[in-house]
Model the fold of this input.
Amino acid sequence: MVRDADPPVTERPAARRRMPFHKGAFPSKLRSLRLTSFLGLGLAVAFGTCFVTGLLDHLIQHPPGWFHWPARPIWLFRVTQGVHVATGLATIPLLGVKLWSVYPRLFRWPPARDLAHAVERLSVFVLIAAGLFQLVTGVLNIALWYRPMHFFFPSAHYWTAWLAIGAIVAHIGVQLPLIRAGLTHRPRRTVPPGTLTRRGLLAATAGAAGVITLATVGQTVAPLSSISLLAPRRPRTGPQQLPVNRTAGAAGVRALAVDPAYRLVLDGPGGTTRLSMADLQALPQHTVSLPIACVEGWSADAVWSGVRLRDLMALAGADTAGYEVFAESLETAGLYRSTTVDPAHARDPLTVVALRLRGEPLHLDHGYPARLIAPNRPGVLQTKWLARLTVRRAP
Ligand SMILES: Nc1nc2c(c(=O)[nH]1)N[C@H]1C(S)=C(S)[C@@H](COP(=O)(O)O)O[C@H]1N2
Ligand SMILES: [Mo]
Done:
């Protein structure tokens, strides 16, 4: 197997003869097992990190019984989701150059020597297709461009991730002897002066990944937002210096939200209470500094004031541990119209039903008259335009 290590793949006479394209297509001497192995290593680290952080996001949004996501530290989800988006983006140049480095092999003829080889090639095909699907849909999601996606993005992105990671593990397993050889054997071959070296190509690839990251990380790191040309959302844009994805108009809640007859319905073991804005304002007010950290990768700090959720739970007759809160929006149809606040988040002193943002009443697009804001939760669970809170025993 190690014989593959030295000459670049295009120089193997058999490979060249059998290529369906004219011989000498893309005849780069840069291609080598070593280059491919290093690119593969980088890709495995980036994709693996992206997979784990993505899985975490999925578990937080759809927690199975055994999973508990803590309310502290308040910045944890912001970091894991930022890492998810950054590593996903870094994968783009890595995958591009990796595919280029093995390009002649992808079109080798005949396509398979035997059954085992056919299975291996099929797994490579799955790997490429699933990897490209993840990158394209992920970027479309960051760009909030859902129109070309004729499927439900979160489910498609989640299940394809399993396909991709399965194919990657299989691929690494099959190629392990070659990868080991590629990473340990240093070929003596030299590249003519003045041409791109392998080290140069790896550095350029890493540089491209870095530039892409810098051009987007500003959607989370405010000081970098001015150079974040690729970030569609910046921390200080939007009403009250906070970005808005879904406006009150889009959610169809404008009329209900400004109706003087608005009441926040509070349901619990002690019965049902209907709280007017004046009632809510008369309860003890608390100010917390918490970020909105959207799963799309942007996040922004803000200062919120309102009533602690635990105070409302006490009012509803649930003054002890073991209760969760089901929060519903005035929105009737949206996918994100309701969430469950688990006991740890519900009792946290930083979890508030916010009435104010940066000292002003909430803007209609930020959830006026009242929204949920809790520490270390994905933005998608920070329900706006609250209509009803149901306090109930956690399962
Ligand atoms: N009722 C309701 N609340 C919602 C949403 C929504 O669509 N409906 N979007 C959520 C999402 S995805 C995020 S990131 C935060 C901030 O969203 P915004 O930018 O639309 O204010 O609010 C959340 N609260
Ligand atoms: Mo979001």
Summary: The CA atoms of residues 250 and 365 lie 9 Å apart. The longest helix spans residues 153-184. Strands lie at 264-268, 271-275, 286-293, 299-308, 323-329, 338-341, 352-357, 360-361, 371-373, 386-393.
